Amino acid sequence: xDRITVVGSGAWGTALAIQAARAGRSVQVLAxxxxxxxxxRRTRQSPQLPGIDLARSIDVLAVAEAADLGDAVLSVxxxxxxxxxxxxxxxxxxxxxxxxxxAKGLHAAGPSLLSEAVAxxxxxAPIAILSGPSFADEVAKDLPxxxxxxxxxxxxxxxxxxxxxxxxxxxxxxLNDDPVGVQIGGAAKNVVAIACGMARGLGFxxxxxxxxxxxGLAEITRLxxxxxxxPTTLLGLAGVGDLALTCAGPHSxxxxxxxxxxxxxxxxxxxxxxxxxxxxxxxxxxLQLARLRGVDMPIAEALDAVLAGRLDLxxxxxxxxxxxxxxxxxxxxx
Length: 334
What we know:
There is one protein chain. This protein is α/β, with parallel strands linked by helices. It has two domains: 3-177, Rossmann fold (3-Layer(aba) Sandwich); 186-333, N-(1-d-carboxylethyl)-l-norvaline Dehydrogenase, domain 2. It has 14 helices and ten strands. It has helices at 11-22, 34-43, 79-89, 114-121, 136-140, 156-166, 179-202, 206-226, 237-246, 253-262, 267-274, 278-292, 298-307, 313-321; strands at residues 3-7, 26-31, 59-62, 72-75, 99-101, 106-107, 112-113, 127-131, 145-150, 171-176. Strands 3-2-1-4-5-8-9-10 form an eight-stranded mixed β-sheet, with helices on both faces. Strands 6-7 form a two-stranded antiparallel sheet. Helix 6 (156-166) links the parallel strand 9 and strand 10. Helix 7 (179-202) packs parallel to helix 10 and helix 12 crosses helix 13 (298-307). It is globular. The N and C termini lie far apart (46 Å).
């Protein structure tokens, strides 16, 4: 597995392209259009990762220009664009070439997991999920990072090959056979991070942030288990690991967005100034999944109500604090 195609030229796509090249692979990056591709070819830097250069060995093309997608594809576009990109590239994907989803979100139709939606447009492609605690700039700078690489058990051998293709001294993929848990963990942690950011913006202190992180994990676990995930996944890199990193502070776009909203800044302005907050789109989709399966997610529900303008922040906090006392663990600690 020597030739890697990275679809997406934002911060995470650029970082993964740099990492794949560092691991000794031949890499091409596909930007969304010719103007973006030309700018990246000229500057060798993504605007989202200033000061970090793409190696000259990395080719940069527009999506429309790519004829050969190589031995593996990393799809590194926002979750809402993931299926459209897969559909556009489907005619150029050779049978058996793995398609790795690197976005952390849900597909609006259904709603459904991204892997389920992508499988419908790429029925012959093995689907992998790359997730876990991984800030793009740290990966690009070759700082130590561990991630989860999830594929169905039947594709384990292919997963091992893909993992070794991306592995280097400071970047370690751990194999995982639970794509459901990895995806729910990745999508839902962004929602919890926004809530933790709001708590910071309101000046609630570290106790409140820790409580939100912990009870947020309980909500993620309840939904994941009902959807067939393994409990151990939520204790690993794609669960606790990613949640802890994303909720740690303003280096996280979702936390930064929540902190700005907590300080009273309009949500649209907060996202425009602080970068894409995937949790904003994920919150209502997560709740739809939960309601279809009878899963209680009070933090996600309160957050969604605030962002949709149905509740003000003060009222949402009061409702959360006024909930009846329950056992932390019995019946899922609802």
